[in-house]
Amino acid sequence: MADKSAKLTIDGKEFELPMHSPTAGPDVIDIRKLYGQAGVFTYDPGFTSTASCDSTITFIDGDKGELLHRGYPIDQLAEKSHYLEVCFLLLYGYLPKAEELEEFENTITRHTMLHEQMQYFFRGFRRDAHPMAIMVGVVGAMAAFYHDSTDISDERQREIASHRLIAKMPTIAAWAYKYSVGQPFVYPRNDLTYSENFLHMCFAVPAEEYKVDPILSRAMDRIFTLHADHEQNASTSTVRLASSSGANPFACIAAGIACLWGPAHGGANQACLEMLKEIGTPDRIPEFIARAKDKNDPFRLMGFGHRVYKNFDPRATVMKQSADEVLDLLGVENNPILATAKELEKAALADDYFADKKLFPNVDFYSGVILEAMGFPTSMFTPIFALSRTVGWVSQWKEQLADPQMKIGRPRQLYQGETFRDYVDIENR
Ligand code: SDX
Does position 2 have pLDDT exceeding 90, yes or no? Predict the structure, then answer.
């Protein structure tokens, strides 16, 4: 129930709008009846000041640089938990007991195989297809194979679809990579953990035994955890909007993958590493800082800035620590790209432009450095982000379907086009 209200005066007429208070974050003004009462719309391109839904999954305090999943801070989860336990937490809202976690992990493990027929989807692509193009296509096509988990009105089918998506994304991402390098697909194995399985499917070849390096699997698991969910970001909002029409879960997640692909969103990790390589050496940093500040230059520092964080992205802080650890443990001495990244961060944070606009490194700034050191090509960075974020998408999708307030999302507009005019026959134009 509304505990306070906001008053709006339009042309001398006063309207009272209910307000709702959250458990954390800003109050909201409930404008659902505004158009009916006052005949006006609100206007918020990019949704900079708009809450689209209720949620209990993830909270971000952009000023403090705090990220909580079901109340637990991301730095503690990255340090003490692991990805499948975070998946359970996001899906069900609490940290599992040992036996619950074991059952959940067994369930996910047993859903990692793809229908054998799906291989033909991969083979229909050109070898140089971007893995994100393959993921969008193959995940959407899952609706043609897993009919017994597409009925969104059936809670059990919703749960099976969630498990299938979380379990199969590593297989789909790994096979997209294998296809791009012309190597045979490697099947998942039930004796490996989630991150070990992904690395094995990416880097094993039939010609020899592949032992998963525990350093890499720990780093991989941490990267999965850091990308798991992030409130109502663009791709999650895309999944929610697609789901609001009653679309099946595979279509909704394929829509989320498509949105994440953009360089302003999940595609930034690939764009950031490509930018660091273009910069090359620290002496070219001032040139790129100047370009990022130049209003006439569309160039932006990739991996910098965030709609919500006006302080450090806590994931970037953990990622930076991991970058040092992983490169050190891999014996990658003085990685020039990491050195350039650190110099660039220092130079940007010392520059008034970035300080005044509160632009800090985000989750994408350091992730690419680690992924490249682990052996992934830049084209696999965003597929790994998509793989990690699948649990966030399905958790938010499930939450929305259970929300009694849920209705089809249908925004209005500020129309600036031509008003009514009659058709003109071609001979009179
Ligand atoms: C992700 O929403 C999420 O939670 C996303 C995400 C998640 O986990 O789901 O956190 C993942 O997408 C992280 C962001 C990855 N994208 C990038 O690193 C791309 C580079 N950054 C940006 O393009 C930008 O910062 C955004 C898209 C991330 C945020 O854009 P906003 O909130 O719409 O801010 P804006 O574009 O209005 O910028 C505000 C000002 C502008 O200057 P003015 O017009 O006010 O003078 O800051 C400037 C921008 O020009 N600015 C930058 C900049 N980012 C913003 N200038 C230079 N370099 C940048 N990176």
Answer: no
